[in-house]
Amino acid sequence: MSTAVSTLVTTDLPLPGRRAGKVRDLYDLAPDLDGRPRVLIVATDRASAFDVVLPDAAPGKGRLLTTTSLWWFRRLRRLEIVEDHVLHGDVEAIPELEGLEVEVFDALRGRISVCRAVEIVPIECVARGHLAGSGLAEYREQGSVCGLPLPPGLRPGDPLPETIFTPATKATEGHDENIDFDRVVRELGGELAERLRATTVELFEAARRIAAEQGLVLADTKFEFGFELGPDGRPTDRLLLADEILTSDSSRWWPAEAVGHGSVPRGFDKQPLRDWLQAEFDTGRWNKQPPGPRVPGEVREALLGSYREVAVRLGALPDRDVVSGT
Ligand SMILES: Nc1ncnc2c1ncn2[C@@H]1O[C@H](COP(=O)(O)OP(=O)(O)O)[C@@H](O)[C@H]1O
Ligand SMILES: [Mg+2]
Questions:
Q1: How many domains, in total, are found in the chain?
Q2: CA 203 – CA 205 distance, rounded (Å)
Q3: Is residue 190 part of a domain?
Q4: Least C-beta-crowded within 10 Å: which of 5, 99, 129, 186?
Q5: Residue numbers of the domain that contains 170
Q6: pTM of the model
């Protein structure tokens, strides 16, 4: 556990089953009264890009991620599109952590979510509403995005005629790879594939409408789903929306006023970090393999500023102090 309250790089909690993703640490919690397993998800301040965890953390990023994600879970739950994995985000309400030092509580506060344990469906469910990123590159070369043909004449950043579902593999190592819908059908069966596509598109469009009221354009996003684990630890047939949702780590957020001018807007997302890293790559200073390069303070500040802007525009921040970690 980092001693500084404002930056949390890694955790080592006295809980079983610790596993670390690129950004978040997971632990097993005692089951609920029905015997269903639960997990603790801690969003650290680690930053990753191009699938590499960078050596420099972004202080407070984990709080911004958690605050934004929990806000969206609450907001979307009301629409009853799909059930989700969130139970609560209250670090004081975890019996297993009682008696830990106050510094640990302070570091975890605002960064955790207690969730139903799921077996994650091994497909990243991506929805796109605008032309950007890898979709733009493919459109320029082939006139399609992830194999889906699009009308000619679209400019970078333009809205697509309709939301498209562009799934990707959830690679356990290496990079995620875009795949076509038929491959999802082959891997998961037609029924689940259709359900994931319809649910992803419906969630995306609902989020887009809500965000538009706050002057934000959701250009694309990625959802993960999972099957809830039963008391025997085995997946049931209850599909839950899992992971984090609609954060700047998983989505492209654009200021509405910058959209529709024929170029990909500078967004409130990872792009400042990606651009800086790409320049390091282009000039031969980094080969896109771990370890990543040291990231200058101003680049990390720009990243945090972007993440904060989304939370502020949405009205998801209870107050600034909680999130800046002071
Ligand atoms: N409810 C859940 N139960 C089990 N695993 C989950 C749940 N929600 C999310 N996960 C997984 O936890 C991990 C979150 O950590 P993250 O840093 O995003 O990892 P990654 O490097 O795989 O993206 C992801 O692998 C995600 O699939
Ligand atoms: Mg992840």
A1: 1
A2: 6
A3: yes
A4: 99
A5: 122-274
A6: 0.94
